[in-house]
What we know:
The protein is α+β, with helices and mostly antiparallel strands. It has 17 helices and 14 strands.
Amino acid sequence: MTATAQPPRKHTARKRTPSEPPTVAASVSRGKAARSAAPRVSHAEFEPAPDRSDPVELLQRQARTRVPELVPIRYGRMLVSPFAFYRGAAAIMAEDLASTPQSGLKVQCCGDAHLSNFGIFASPDRRLVFDLNDFDETLPGPWEWDVKRLAVSMLIAAQSNDFRKRDQRRVVLDSVASYRGAMASFARMGNLDVWYSRFEIESVLAKYAGQFKPRSVKGAQKELAKARTKDSMSALSKLTHVVDGEVRIVDESPLIVPIDRLAQGATRERILTGLRRILGVYRDSLPIERQRLFDQFELADLARKVVGVGSVGTRAWIALLLGPVGTDPLFLQIKEAQPSVLEDHLEKSEFANYGERVVVGQRLIQASSDIFLGWLRADGDDYYGRQLKDWKGSAEIEQLDADSLAVYGRMCGWTLARAHARTGNRVAIAAYLGSSDGFDRAILAFSQSYAEQNERDYRALREAADSGRIVAEAGL
């Protein structure tokens, strides 16, 4: 990110002609008719296409638009385990999903709904909520793709934890059954009730604590307490130090590279001046009341930061802003937005700015979004911004037993159904799913086949690293 900023492109959404919402009867008929085009049992099918792309080549194609020196870190993180590989393989799975049966019912897809992209964070009214928290790949598309991405992640996680076969199956079936049951419930609700629905983690934990093992409840409460400490103040103590009386972001290269590594003195100040203009562009994408709040902070420092697994190599920055008191920090994450991996297989995004695509998708899907969620364009690259930490937390999957992972899967299934119910024809989807577990078992069969494919792709990347075809840097 350099010092030249352009104003955000105007909203380029295609004009839609208002139409009468379908009646419940019409939606039910549509959902049941979709069973003819894509029988529920057909979702069990997965057979690699004869012309399936080389998975390593797909990852190398993605690497062409990424920071070259960070790509080996991405490969290294993906090679930690088959589950870590799966997290970074959204583009590979998107190509595979494109050839699977579709009901024709569309929603705003997350695009990468694996279980680690769910978690807890603070809502604007300071409640801890559980929701999807990654939207880099969001795009309108088939709801089944998100369900399959989630279900396969559940199975691979269960396999990684060495669960018994029956527990592996239970984790997947519980996740999909939760989605199906929640969609049936949302189909009976009014539009506003669906929109206001959210998963408040503390109230749910209090309500169902008696159903969990005491150890699991204690662990969950510990994680919630830990999440509340993850805010800009904690980031200030962990990510900064004082240099010549001024707060600076620490140097943890190559994972955190402060601007001081790039420039000093007057050159540094010129870059920061340009970055302030860029942040002004970002500011203009915020609602007016948030602009007023943002104006009370001043940019103090900036650093490049490596984030996630699949996102490694995209340009991601953390910006430290300080209020007039000096102990009033705001840490923003400003992350590059590229085309969704779904766009190679679906209709292109209606937004000219990929950051706007991410932000709008997030606001559609999430029940409560970060108050500083916005977008910008700088030197031809698109970005979106949000707070770096705001009571954020996620499950340590490797620490969960089979019962706990099954509960987590049910939470994810409900949350994904809520996201889809907000943005698609929930009555039609519920009618398509029906009340039997036929769809659930089909997705289990798909997950078992695709987990085997993921294992083969993981080995292909391992072989590429061993042969020198790619360079993978482990331990970062």
